[in-house]
Amino acid sequence: MFDGTRDQTALVRMEGLHKSYGAVKVLQGLDIEMKRGDRVVVIGPSGGGKSTLLRVLMGLEKVDAGNISFGGRPYITVRNGKTVIDTEVRRSIGMVFQHYTLFPHLSVLQNLVLAPCKVNGEGTASAKARAQALLDRFGLGARAGAYPAQLSGGQKQRVAIARALMLDPKLMLFDEVTSALDPELVAEVEQVMLELAAQAMPMVIVTHDMWFARNIASRVIFCAGGVVVEDGPPEQVLGKPIHERTREFINRVFHIRA
Amino acid sequence: MDYVLDLGAVTRHFGPLLEGLWVTIQLTLAANAMGLVLGFAVALLVLSPVRLVRLPAVAFVEFFRCTPAIVQIVWFFYCVPMLFNLYLGSMTMGILALGLNLAAFNGEAYRAAIQAVPREQRDAAVALGLSPLQSTLHVILPTALRLAMPVLLTNGIVIFQQSALVAIVAVPDLMYEAKSLATKTYRPIETFTLVALVYFAVSFPVSQVVGWLERRRAVAMA
Fold first, then answer.
1. What would the DSSP string read from start to end of A56-120?
2. Which residues cross the membrane (chain B) (predicted)?
3. Among the four given CATH numbers 1.10.10.10, 1.10.3720.10, 3.40.50.300, 2.30.30.60, the one describing domain B22-174
């Protein structure tokens, strides 16, 4: 598999990303450079392009213009108006979604081993052993045989994270993974993400949970109107934002009058 | 009412009725085999991004959905032999007519189920590196087939009932035998009531299974 950690250039470089759905321009020239070990939290108003940014980065959406390189290697480019995705690079990125993350017809263990066996041709026995070890680590060892419908929302998201980790990703994307959870289940999912952070897993996280953002981010990006408005350490962007637009948003989120 | 029930009139002629039921069951099974396989192909064609492939399939589905089954059967029985110089025996013609009708309805059931698989499931498959074929085989179809199952079963049981229509084109099914028996014995109440009960006795358990599957699915998809 393509190893994005070998050379010392930026991990991800996004340049001039443009994307529209019909007349609605969602990304309008987005430039982000991400270093290794960066844990980027993306915040911003709805429709500001946060989720689209993650979906583009995962290779799930076409773009109208711009390019992305990963570990110094071209990943997504636009040629003659067509989006070209290097699927080998894409396989080194993992993603967890807000809803319907697990495959309902497969048990937890089968969810974990599907891609390693089908995509990487790993043997079932070895994949199952790795899967069981990961589940044990996340406190889910006893649920290996359960089906997604038998799990709580928090357990489902933790399994989804484990499933993505089975492919040894060089970058993990989290798209509002706790937004649909009951409040008392949020912490167990965030705990797993903090563990990954402690192991220096590069991440891009879209969340509305500002407390969590402050705790996990090495860097916060405020996206609005399809561009990066402010980009800096969490203390700056969440605490003392420089840009007026960021300040307005942060104040509204924290219910503080400006 | 001075009609005196004589169940003996029917029970004495059980033989033909049983033979009729056997023909009805054969019609149903054959039409379902055809409808399940052909319907799946129809769904794939209807979902094709290529217009030239999609449009004929859509036309096929709409034709069968928008004309009465009885007209389809009569048309098939009388017009196909004249137009194509093709006559295959009343039973085969009956199976073909019912099977094509079912293929159209099952095609819609498969299509709706495939489209009902949440987009996130496809996205998750892509994010895990599965190819489009792998994602279809291992993620979309297993879920879609489960979603389609109750509708496919319902359609199957509807065809069991609709198969009574082939009696008018001289296929000796349950309804055909019932009509001749009622005419022969002058016992329409006994005969048709019994036949209605037979249709009910076969359909009702299947509709219960459909209800059970739907309740189970409601839990599984949560």
1. HHTT-S--SEEEEEETTEEEEEEETTEEEE-HHHHTTEEEE-SSS-S-TTS-HHHHHHHHHHHTT
2. 20-47, 59-78, 84-103, 147-171, 192-213
3. 1.10.3720.10
